[in-house]
């Protein structure tokens, strides 16, 4: 069993206190250490965090720690997204189980519509209007918001990492480990000219992705294509970034053996890509499975972690920041699903 951080233990203790598991008095430190499979020092740090919040107090040295349920927290948790109006209602139903957990924890979940690409300092003031914590989904966080929330001491966590902020608490998945595996499979099947596109909506992400992709190709002695060096504007929508990438490839007459498109593949996207790269006769297309149309020939689909799995883990991490803040940065990665490459990659003719 993986050892829990003291912050995670403090968060779990608060949840058990709220549920009445401990009654009016906390178990002893040795009992808690056995319960959480950790050392006494870790338990002591977790208990101290709850003491600092007033939830636990010591009546006497021999009496142990008592529980003051009047100090259980309540308030609002903001779920920041780009989903406005009707789409927000649709997304809320998708995350209903998480929203119910938040309510059981004493908080009111509130969806907050926000687009970091368009914001200014005056636009982000609503993000610290009475919130006890914030979760930033689908690339809604940028450096201005980070600095603003840190100055207000409001706990928050991102479902993406900001490449230029090493102190950011985030939940994500490591793209380039599975990408390396995918490239090796392609090379083993005879593909030599491989192109890659991931339309990023986080400041600095496209630059980071480009550098890592070039590094990966050089490590495999693969030819560098002109599109490998193309830097797209993160402020553009994913559709605009895709269009600019395709137009560049058309002008440069780039003809890859395989194109890894780390983006959804609705039929209109497939049509645009097919026009430029002549799929499947010339190029093998590998794209994400969401909105995938099984009628698309010459396409291998890739599965990524479900977005709600990121947000569920982000909420648990946010509870740790609320109940037991520490100097250690939360950096956690979601594993890719098993059999994330759907179907067999054909050998290059």
Instruction: Let me know the largest β-sheet.
Output: 5 strands, mixed
> Treating each run of at least 4 consecutive H or I residues as one helix, how many helices?
11
CA-based gyration radius? 24 Å
Q: Estimate percent helicity.
A: 25-40%
- Count of DSSP E strands? 13
* CA(first)-CA(last) distance: 47 Å
CATH class of the largest domain: Alpha Beta
Second rung of CATH, namely the architecture of the largest domain: 3-Layer(aba) Sandwich
Strand order of the largest sheet: 8-9-10-11-13
Which spans have pLDDT < 50 for at least 5 consecutive residues?
none
CATH topology of the largest domain: Rossmann fold
Listing every helix as H and every strand as E from the N terminus to the C terminus, the arrangement reads HHHEEEHHEEHEEHEHHEHEEHEE
Mean model confidence by pLDDT: 86
The proportion of residues in beta strands is 15-25%
Number of domains: 3
Which class do the helix and strand fractions yield? alpha/beta
Q: So, the CATH homologous superfamily of the largest domain? A: Response regulator
Q: What is the overall shape?
A: elongated
Task: Briefly say what this structure is.
By secondary structure, the protein is an alpha/beta fold.
Detailed description of the structure:
The structure is a single chain. The chain has three domains: 6-71, Winged helix-like DNA-binding domain superfamily/Winged helix DNA-binding domain (Arc Repressor Mutant, subunit A, Orthogonal Bundle); 75-172 and 308-333, Response regulator (Rossmann fold); 176-304, Rossmann fold. With 349 residues, the protein is α/β, with parallel strands linked by helices. The chain contains eleven helices and 13 strands. The protein has a five-stranded mixed beta sheet with strand order 8-9-10-11-13, covered by helices on one side. A four-stranded parallel beta sheet has the order 4-3-5-6, covered by helices on one side. It has a two-stranded antiparallel ribbon with strand order 1-2. The longest helix is centred in the last third of the chain and has 17 residues, at 307-323. 38% of the residues lie in helices and 16% in strands. A hairpin with a 3-residue loop joins strand 1 and strand 2 (64-67). It has helices at residues 6-19, 29-36, 40-52, 85-94, 96-104, 143-151, 176-188, 205-219, 238-251, 267-277, 307-323, and strands at residues 56-60, 64-67, 75-81, 107-113, 131-136, 156-158, 170-172, 194-197, 258-261, 284-288, 299-302, 331-333, 341-342.
